[in-house]
Design a protein that fits this description.
Length: 476
């Protein structure tokens, strides 16, 4: 988090803790079908009769390491990585291992504690906060000694050096994943071998994973659709007041109260202001609406990074639907497949059913209403991918597995072909919760240094998770 977000989170905890103690039932979500989340984001063909696999219990259960274009890997345990730079000069590079911090949070924190602008901080891809990750970053015009002195909670900086060029989004081969999937019952070795072989030889559809759609509500695509189909006012309203089956009642009720005050921006801000971290983007939009006297496009521009994510999430939802139909019907899609916000004429054919249903005739034309949003030039995806599986091993806890995916592909998509994948809350009673060094189990490295240097950060994450799990259990 930035210092501002950290302060907001700390202020919010007093309110949340008091509410949990007085009304614990408001912090328990309704039970939903196992595939409800996948269906809500356009994935309609989740395999049936799979074992339940719980992932991301601990941050070390979900390790993501960046694969550079030359195939070398930026590892969390600090093994030497290759260097390939082009053009320009005067750039400081470093490899960042992090836990509990997203790439965007790390970028903002660097900008906040130095004089470097966000636009001068480069990276190839965004890595999640709810994981242990490692990637290469750059600072154009950076000063070596200043970067060497950077202290960012939850991070380790290695391999700091000066060279040419800059890191650019998309400038990677893919990512290598090391996962610990925890299962209720021991897995059958022959069954696992068969599943792995099928994935290696037949491939998997390249669905966009759940993290693309905005936790914890998973409504980002609905907001993006509203922006493109019905305009800025609809987009702002969808984000601030949109109902989600996945949002906990405590937060949903606050949102519903604000919805009753629609148009009274100061009153809405007061209603949501009790929770300055959870509703931080809503509050930024409401501040803009107050200052601009209800100018909705300006409100979206106030959170332009998020606005871009919402539009791209809608394009991802449309892609998931198209991939689902192709998998169900056994039809072929162009490879590469143009995404929705692409000038390729094939867009109108691939997404015809969705565009007609939503009444969206010209997606790119609709996007022009938001000149502050950039989606890349004619984005495409591969409709089917073939994961490279390096190692896997059955353990007492479940399955440890190490595999690589090309850029733009999601580990959660791989998992849905092997498990009825669950994460978050409630934490299952059967879960074996012990720490596992998956890299050591698989012979791919060790997490000893990570534990030594980031152990305190991991312990704090687990303490909060365990407290929340206990409170939710008490309220159920």
């Amino acid at each position: 988090m930035s210092v501002q977000d950290q302060n907001a989170w700390e202020r919010e905890q007093e309110v949340v803790q008091a509410a949990r103690e007085s009304t614990p039932e408001k912090f328990v979500g309704l039970e939903k079908p196992a595939d409800a989340l996948f269906k809500s984001i356009g994935i309609m063909n989740t395999p049936a009769d799979l074992p339940v696999g719980y992932f991301k219990y601990r941050p070390e259960d979900f390790i993501v390491e960046e694969e550079r274009p030359d195939g070398t890997v930026i590892t969390v345990d600090g093994k030497p990585a290759g260097t390939e730079f082009e053009g320009g000069e005067g750039t400081v590079y470093f490899d960042m291992t992090k836990v509990g911090v997203s790439t965007i949070d790390a970028e903002n924190r660097i900008a906040e504690i130095t004089d470097y602008a966000n636009k001068d901080i480069g990276y190839a891809g965004i890595k999640d906060a709810v994981a242990l990750t490692s990637q290469r970053m750059s600072i154009r015009g950076g000063i070596l000694n200043e970067v060497l002195m950077l202290k960012i909670p939850g991070t380790i900086l290695r391999n700091v050096h000066e060279s040419k060029g800059v890191m650019q989004v998309g400038g990677l081969k893919g990512n290598q994943f090391t996962l610990m999937i925890r299962t209720e019952k021991p897995l059958d070795q022959a069954w696992v071998d068969e599943k792995i072989e099928h994935i290696k030889t037949k491939g998997i559809m390249n669905y966009f994973g759940v993290q693309r759609f905005g936790t914890p509500r998973f409504l980002a695509h609905h907001v993006g659709r509203s922006m493109l189909v019905n305009g800025a006012a609809a987009g702002v309203r969808a984000y601030i007041t949109g109902e989600s089956q996945f949002e906990l009642p405590f937060f949903a009720q606050k949102r519903a109260a604000a919805a009753e005050q629609w148009g009274e921006w100061k009153a809405m801000r007061e209603t949501l202001g009790e929770l300055p971290y959870t509703f931080r983007h809503e509050l930024d939009m409401l501040d803009s609406l107050v200052k601009s006297d209800g100018h909705f496009s300006t409100a979206l521009e106030a959170v332009q990074q998020q606005s871009g994510l919402w539009v791209r999430a809608y394009a991802s939802f449309c892609a998931n639907e198209a991939l689902s139909m192709a998998e169900r019907d056994g039809t072929d899609l162009p490879d590469p497949m143009p995404q929705l916000l692409n000038s390729d004429a094939a867009v109108q054919r691939i997404y015809k059913a969705r565009l007609e249903q939503d009444g969206l005739r010209n997606p790119l034309g609709a996007l022009k209403k938001y000149p502050f949003i950039r989606v890349g030039r004619n984005p495409t995806i591969k409709p089917k991918i073939f994961p490279t599986i390096h190692a896997y091993k059955l353990t007492d806890e479940g399955l440890a597995i190490n595999f690589s995916l090309p850029k733009g592909a999601y580990a959660t998509t791989m998992l849905m072909y092997m498990f009825n994948s669950v994460t978050g809350y409630p934490v299952p009673e059967w879960l074996k919760t012990g720490y596992v060094d998956t890299k050591e189990v698989l012979g791919t490295g060790s997490l000893v240094e990570v534990k030594e240097r980031l152990g305190g950060d991991i312990d704090r994450i687990m303490k909060r998770k365990d407290e929340k799990a206990k409170e939710m259990k008490a309220g159920s």
